[in-house]
Design a protein that fits this description.
With about 525 residues, the protein is of the alpha/beta class. It folds into three domains: about 260 residues, Aldolase class I (TIM Barrel, Alpha-Beta Barrel); about 110 residues, Double Stranded RNA Binding Domain (2-Layer Sandwich), CATH 3.30.160.340; about 55 residues, Double Stranded RNA Binding Domain, CATH 3.30.160.740. Strand 3, helix 3 and strand 4 form a beta-alpha-beta unit. Helix 1 packs antiparallel against helix 12, helix 13 crosses helix 14 and helix 16 packs across helix 18. The longest helix is centred in the last third of the chain and has 19 residues.
Length: about 525
């Protein structure tokens, strides 16, 4: 089984994504995670460019990585310095990383416009830099920056740059689609041309500006690349880099290459989520392989087929990458969806049962009103269990009143009054809050906590409002999603009404009843 090595540049290229800013401790944590799953090269940053990366490499000496080689990044020497005097190259040596990844210009347009030197002088920069780093005992990856654009403009010079790098001793020549504008067919043909002229191992570094980052990386491997560079979740500048969360499973599951251990592949979704959390970026729901909806089925016909054989609508087993099959509920649902979800909830529904038809009609009516159960699944579980008689209402609303009083410059006072029937007793409570939902929540808890003390463990962790038809203006229906949690679980409930307070109440009650149902 042929080995493909991975260089993860999340800590460098990934950190250049708008909205991402890793601390030194974040970077150390990510390096450990990548080492745990067996990524061969972890590119930590540019030690000569900023204090954060300098500090990272100092602390990284104590990481004791077991499977990954820490890699430092920089440019070839500057024209005014000899290699042994160049500050960037010296920073690479001083950081003590065993592997260095240096980039050099291979597009004559950049040599002329960016470096302002001759093509011959640029070749000398490449040669001297690699030869010096090799003399210092480093493994050297040469990033041929803008190689594909350079080849298309001047193939003779682009190949000359690679030839010089190879003769200087570079261990891997990484061909870069830096602007992300190449197509897979171009990657393939150019890689094939390069292999006729170059004997050194080749790599690929693809950006995603044309949404081809993963496709171009795979095309390069098919054409002979043995090293792939990318980032977890495709983080990176502009449109990002090739997403390793897709590259790795494609190489392993579709093409049969050895990349990381199969046991580590099963943690891929977990790694993706962990990186999202560290980066403070929301996970991408429909991200291939690791996204929450990557194996979600909504249409009734799809679900019916998947229940018979998952291969009908799934290209791999979700568990191979640490994901799971999900069946969602909506107005597109059929009987198969309901049976599947009911089974998840421990309810045995039969195809011909009257509850099924009643539930299906109820579901479609509620979704027509604006309910959405794909996220508010706790509300749907309550709906199912009430429909089959497994759960009865824990309390009944008689009426509530919410008042807001604003007097001059004083803070607004919000008060809720609630009348409930709880186990045959009428309860009247009042509570003040920071807003109407907070006040209602307080009044509800007061009314039932002595009978249902477990509600004291429930806390509201998120509250979202969606206007369903903005053309109706202030008379529009709104959908409220409330996320609740206790010490062990998080759940989401939903309410819909033209009255935002009523919609909030419906979602709030479902959240409390869900907790009482679960115990």
């Amino acid at each position: 089984m042929k080995q493909i090595t991975i260089l993860d540049t999340t800590l460098r290229d990934g950190s250049q994504m708008e909205g991402v800013s890793f601390t030194v401790e974040d970077k150390l944590k990510i390096a450990r995670l990548l080492d745990e799953i067996g990524i061969q090269y972890v590119e930590g940053g540019w030690p000569g460019s900023n204090p954060k990366d300098i500090n990272f490499f100092k602390k990284a000496k104590k990481l004791n990585l077991k499977q990954s080689k820490l890699t430092a990044f920089a440019s070839t020497r500057r024209a005014k310095y000899a290699a042994e005097k160049d500050p960037n190259l010296q920073a690479l040596i001083e950081c003590e990383a065993p592997v260095v990844s240096i980039f050099g210009k291979t597009w004559d347009f950049h040599v002329k416009e960016a470096l302002k030197i001759s093509n011959e002088e640029n070749l000398k920069l490449i040669e001297d830099s690699i030869a010096y780093l090799k003399s210092q005992g480093r493994e050297v990856l040469f990033d041929a920056e803008h190689f594909f654009d350079g080849y298309k403009a001047n193939p003779e010079y682009a190949l000359q740059c690679l030839s010089v790098a190879e003769k200087a001793g570079a261990d891997v020549l990484v061909l870069c689609d830096t602007n992300g504008g190449s197509l897979p067919s171009e990657i393939t043909s150019i890689m094939q041309a390069v292999k006729k002229m170059i004997n050194a191992p080749l790599g690929i570094h693809a950006h995603n500006d044309s949404n081809m980052g993963v496709a171009n990386s795979i095309a390069a491997v098919e054409a002979g690349a043995v090293n792939v560079q990318g980032t977890i979740n495709g983080y990176g500048e502009r449109c990002g880099n090739a997403d390793l969360c897709s590259v790795i499973p494609v190489l392993m599951l579709k093409m049969g290459y050895k990349v990381i251990g199969e046991e580590h592949l099963k943690t891929l979704k977990e790694i993706s989520r962990h990186l999202s959390e560290i980066a403070n970026m929301a996970p991408i729901p429909n991200q291939p392989f690791v996204g929450r909806t990557a194996f979600a089925h909504k249409g009734g016909i799809h679900v019916s087929a998947v229940l018979k054989h998952p291969g009908t609508y799934e290209h791999i087993q979700p568990e191979l990458v640490g994901n799971e099959r999900r069946v969602t509920i909506s107005e597109l649902s059929g009987i198969s969806n309901l049976i599947y979800k009911a089974k998840e909830y421990g309810v045995d529904l039969k195809k011909d049962s009257p509850q099924i038809k009643k539930l299906l009609n109820q579901l479609k009516e509620l979704e027509h009103e604006g309910y959405q159960f794909e996220e508010g699944e706790a509300s749907f579980e309550l709906l199912v269990k009430k429909a089959v008689g497994e759960v009865n209402p824990f309390f009944k609303l008689k009426d509530f009143k919410v008042s807001s009083i604003k007097s001059g410059a004083k803070a607004t006072v919000v008060q809720a009054k609630l009348v409930l029937a709880v186990k045959g007793k009428e309860k009247v409570t009042k509570a003040e809050g920071d807003g109407p939902v907070n006040a209602l929540d307080g009044a509800l808890r007061k009314a039932i906590v002595d009978i249902y003390p477990e509600v004291s463990k429930v806390r509201l962790t998120d509250y979202k409002v969606r206007v369903l038809d903005s053309r109706e203006g202030t008379a529009a229906k709104v959908r409220v999603m409330i996320e609740s949690a206790d010490e062990e679980k998080v759940w989401v409930t939903v309410g819909v009404s033209t009255n935002i307070i009523e919609a909030s109440w419906l979602a709030l009650v479902d959240g409390i009843e869900y907790k009482l149902m679960k115990g």
